[in-house]
Amino acid sequence: MSQKPKHIGIAAVSAEGAALCYRTICAEGPAILGPHNHPQITMHTFSLDDYMRPVYDDRWDDVGRMLLESANKLVDAGAELVICPDNTVHQAIDPIRDRVGVPWLHIAEEVAVSAASRGVKRLGILGTKYLMEGPVYPSKLAARGITHEIPDARDRERINSVIFDELVYGRFDAGPRRDFQDIIRRLGDRGCDAVVLGCTEIPLLIREGESPLPAFDSTRILARAALRESVRGVRL
Hints:
The protein is 47% helix and 12% strand. The chain is built from 10 helices and 7 strands. A 4-stranded parallel β-sheet has the order 5-4-6-7, sandwiched between helices. Strand 1, helix 1 and strand 2 form a beta-alpha-beta unit. Helix 1 crosses helix 10, helix 4 crosses helix 10 and helix 7 packs antiparallel against helix 8.
């Protein structure tokens, strides 16, 4: 049995989502480990622009190479498990996660486990257009018997523009919050019994209690999964 928690490595992409993930681990660690205590954490990130250029061009292999380089830097710094608090780039993680040498927790897998545990049958996906229209969530949800919906084209464009024009810059205004609430209501009308806040900045715009449907905060779910795995087998 280990004497201390595993060192967590954060392969960050956007600043706001990564900061929320980091803060969650640090804030919730003391409840498990004692006052002022949390696992050792190392973070590495390339510029968001470095990621977005290959994303725009559909060059997911290049995204994967950056994520792998970032993860290897974390492992070299001592990380014993890795997370990436960015939903969109998870499209590039499955092909590389086994090449790191330490466990790499997958954000959509953790959300799917959480949603299944609460009996969700149909989950609405909110995130960048690359996430909503991409493969990250469907297979992970299907493995847990959960179907999914995405907003219509107009709503997807609105969500995407808010994320890249406002949220990644730390702007969280009331107008976009109301727009997101309306979009969530429309997903409810289409049969969704919950939604995933599948961009790691969205939980900073709309809290779970402000959502018209039960909301799964992917950022904090991933952070808590990392904390759980970090203390697994530790003598507390």
